[in-house]
Amino acid sequence: HLISTDLTKKAFYFPEESNKTYVTVTPETLPSLTATTVCLRYNSNLTRAQSLFSFATLAKANALLLLKNKPGKYSVYVNSKHTNFSVEDTRPASGWTQVCATWESSSGTVMMWVNGKSSSNQMETGQVIPLMNHSIVLGQEQDSFGGGFDRQQSLVGQITEVHMWDYVLSGCEITALNAGLSVTTGNVLNWNVLQYQRHGRVLLKNVEDTCK
Ligand SMILES: *[C@@H]1O[C@H](CO)[C@@H](O)[C@H](O)[C@H]1NC(C)=O
Ligand SMILES: *[C@@H]1O[C@H](CO)[C@@H](O)[C@H](O)[C@H]1NC(C)=O
Ligand SMILES: *[C@@H]1O[C@H](CO)[C@@H](O)[C@H](O)[C@H]1NC(C)=O
Ligand SMILES: *[C@@H]1O[C@H](CO)[C@@H](O)[C@H](O)[C@H]1NC(C)=O
Ligand SMILES: [Ca+2]
User: Fold this and answer.
1) Test site for ligand 4: of 44, 45, 202, most ligand atoms within 8 A of the Cβ
2) Tens digit of each residue's pLDDT (9 = 90 or more) over 72-85
3) Pocket residues: Cβ below 6 A from ligand 2
4) What are phi and psi of 160, to 5 degrees?
5) Which ligand is nearest to the CA of 142?
6) What lines the ligand 4 site, CB under 6 Å?
7) Residues that place a CB less than 5 A from ion ligand 5
């Protein structure tokens, strides 16, 4: 069942590779999106592709997808179109990598931030992620609404501090978040008041220190 709880200092832990373990999260509010920021931290030993954030609508399975392809290579999908990034992501000693993706329809700018380093790409302008049935999944990549999971794209490891906004955070704010100096929380998804449901063997673990 749906739980709404403060996950501060907690992480979802996906202990094994599977296409049956995932977490669905429910937004506080969901406007139709013409801009967004998604931030999170993950801790994984995988070098294969893995889904970090999968947001599907009934019309588009990859309405908003943050995918790590392999070390240093990330893709951001908006309404099924994608753009690739090369961003150095040497794992900090803590094991935790912090990522943020931002997208702004009016300029078409997509930015990928990894441990405070950024890279910027252009996508077509004027896209809107419509307000309609949506499914937000952590731990798996949706090839269809709420399903179509591929174990080869699953996250094995931990994920924490998932926040989503309906606007683009400034570079200053993202830098502060990465450094653990910011208390900015998402207005769409807020890790500190998250409504979620675990499916399959997903554990909640305490996080000692997520700072880099
Ligand atoms: C992005 O990277 C993926 C994975 O390496 C690759 O399959 C795809 O063709 C790339 N897309 C573009 C537009 O370069
Ligand atoms: C889509 O949303 C509507 C309104 O909330 C709901 O009645 C319908 O069952 C949803 N469809 C699916 C496939 O989830
Ligand atoms: C998991 O994979 C199996 C085999 O490919 C497939 O039949 C099943 O639909 C998948 N499950 C989900 C939830 O995607
Ligand atoms: C990564 O591998 C190490 C050594 O096997 C293990 O102790 C650690 O728990 C793994 N980390 C994750 C996030 O699975
Ligand atoms: Ca897939």
Assistant:
1) 45
2) 999 999 999 999 99
3) 58, 133
4) -150, 170
5) 5
6) 43-45, 157-158
7) 141, 143, 150
**pTM surpassing 0.90?**
yes
Q: Which regions of 61-145 does DSSP assign to beta strands (E)?
A: 64-70, 73-78, 81-86, 97-104, 109-114, 117-122, 134-138
Pocket test for ligand 1, best of 62, 69, 122 (most atoms within 8 A of CB): 69
CA nearest 142: which of 90, 200, 77?
Answer: 77
**Joined tokens for residue 56:** 């599907």
Residue with tokens 């952590």: 138
pLDDT digits (tens, 9 = 90+) for 122-177: 999 999 999 889 999 999 999 999 999 999 999 999 999 999 999 999 999 999 99
Nearest-CA residue for ligand 2 atom 9 is 133
Residue 66 predicted with pLDDT over 50:
yes
Q: Is residue 184 within 8 Å of residue 176, measured between CB atoms?
A: yes
Give the other-Cβ count within 10 Å of 124's Cβ.
10
Within 8 A by CB and 6+ apart from 1, the residues are: 197
Beta carbons of 50 and 68 less than 8 angstroms apart: yes
Mean residue pLDDT across the chain = 94
